[in-house]
Every structure is written in structure tokens, then in C-alpha cells.
Amino acid sequence: MPPVPPGYELPLLLFGGFRTLIDRLHEELARQGHADARPAHGFALQAIGPAGVTASELGRRLGVSKQAAGKTVDRLVRLGYVERAASEADARAKVVRLTPLGLDLLNRSAAIFDELRSEWVRALGADQVATVEAALRAVVPSGLRVDAVGWFAAE
Q1: Residue 102 CB neighbours (<10 A)
Q2: Could you tell me the pTM of the whole model?
Q3: Which of 64, 101, 110, 144 is most deeply packed, by most CB within 10 A?
Q4: Grouped pLDDT means (10 residues each) for the chain, 155 residues
Q5: Where's the HTH marR-type domain (predicted)?
């Protein structure tokens, strides 16, 4: 029976897998015309979603301050991924919405992730990948979170 690996290896291996997928994603996004996209941008675009959000709500969803969310929005506006618009519910409020370029980035990301998963299936087998996914679903609290940006940020 092989020795039991030290407990600290598990989070490092999970992070390594995550990092490998994200790095490969961004290599391909750059080839497809999104060279300025960064991992934090993907989390922000997911948090903004199809309905749009205020900067305050974006900060809550990302786990960062309103000011940090505002800086992220400024960068995404400069890159053309989002726009600020007047809220239909409150004319005083500004809503951050995805632009067609932002939607293109998300759609390309989804397609690339499908291909990356297929590569894992070719390398490990469909049953093994399904087992890994099922095991992670069993131990990860329900609901996918996009607040990694705030979680990784230094205080």
C-alpha cells in the first residue's frame, strides 16, 4: 500500500490543476484576440452576469471593496468588455453591463473550457474525470463562487 501523502498536497494539487486550466485558457484566449484578458477579469465578468450590477454589488460578489470593484470596472471599460449605463430602476445609479466583446470573451472561454475538459478526458479517461468531478461536487459547498479575487487579495 502506498504511503499516505501529506495533507498539504491536496490543496496544492487542486490549485495546480486550476492554475493549469486557467493558464491554458488564457493562452488560447490570447490566440483568439483577447490578449489583454486576465483571470480576475473572468471572475468579474461572471459576477456581472447577463443582467448587470452596480459597482457595490460587484464588490460584494467578488469579495472586494466598492473601490476595488470600481477599479476593476474601469479596466474592463477601457478594454471594451463592459459599459456603464443608467439603471432602469434608479436613474441615480449606474449599472455595469457586459458589452458584445465581454459576451464574446465569456462564450470563447466556455468553449475553451469544454476543449480543456476533453483533453483531460483523453488523458485520464471519461470515467476518471467524471469521478473527480463527482468527488469535488460532494465536498464543495453547493453553488459556484466567483469571489476568489477578494479571497486571494492581501488585507
Answers
A1: 22
A2: 0.88
A3: 64
A4: 93 94 97 95 93 92 90 96 88 90 97 98 98 93 69 57
A5: 7-141
Helical spans, DSSP H, in the chain: 9-31, 39-48, 55-62, 66-79, 100-124, 126-139, 148-152
Q: Where along the chain do its domains lie?
A: 9-140
| 3 state DSSP class of 142 | coil
How is 58-98 classified by DSSP, letter by letter? Answer: HHHHHTS-HHHHHHHHHHHHHHTSEEEEE-SS-TTSEEEEE
d(CA 59, CA 69): 5
According to DSSP, residue 53 is labeled: B
CATH architecture assignment, domain 9-140 = Orthogonal Bundle (1.10)
